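Re: weekly structure request thread

Next one in the queue (270 aa):
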Amino acid sequence: MRLGIKIWVGAVGVVLCAPALALRARAQDAKPIVQQAVTAELAANRDDQSHWRYLRGEAGGTSFIVVETEHGAIGRHVEEKGRPASAAVLAADDAHNQKFIHDPAMQQKQRQNGEHDDKSAVELMNLLPQAFLWRVESETPETTTLSFKPDPNFHPPDMEARVMGAMSGTLVVNNAQHRIRTMKGRLESDVTIGFGLLARIKQGSTFDVERRQVAPGYWEITETHVHISGHALFFKTIGQQEDEVKSEFTLVPLGTTLDQAVGLLKSTAK
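Done, posted below.
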């Protein structure tokens, strides 16, 4: 990013002051970029009624086909520990899916869990601009990369926000659509509650979320890497280690039933 027009009058002074002015401008320009990205993400989330069929891979070589519908999502193994899923594993998946299809309570629980996660994500997304000190690090025609670090003036409203607000890391924004492409962070110090007796999330905990446009106008999470450790409630261990990759996204037709989703699982499994 360059500021002003280079002039010969006072050239020495301009050259000496330019680095400091550029750094200040990058900090001032960063927060509006983040706010614009947050606004775009929230609007897209509010208007998006799409459902997807995709391949979900986990650490250790286990993978599933997942099919989403308005009634819930079901899955079926493709591989287990790097090998084709056995008949016994597939039979267990099929039995579980049939139980889910005919059990409204299971569907409601999945829906409630999803709504809770969505609510938490929206709340944390709204806090992004003010939770951190932002700085533009680099720009290309396609993306802008920003860095963030904790803002000492931020007062987190809950534990999730407190952990998030203690992170430092980078955010990559797609310039054309103002969508978040990458967000990764690292906890720079322990986060404690009740002097560490009630909860302690350990320094060095990390997260990395990658998002891509999987169809025109549709952005989905394609990679999630979360490594968090600590304890809560009087030394109950916290251990969230997640490495997940999603690929082969295909739109599921509107109105697809769970019974039809079973057919999609079996017809697309390899």
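The two ends are 49 Å apart (CA to CA). Confidence is low (pLDDT under 50) at residues 1-25.
Next request, please.
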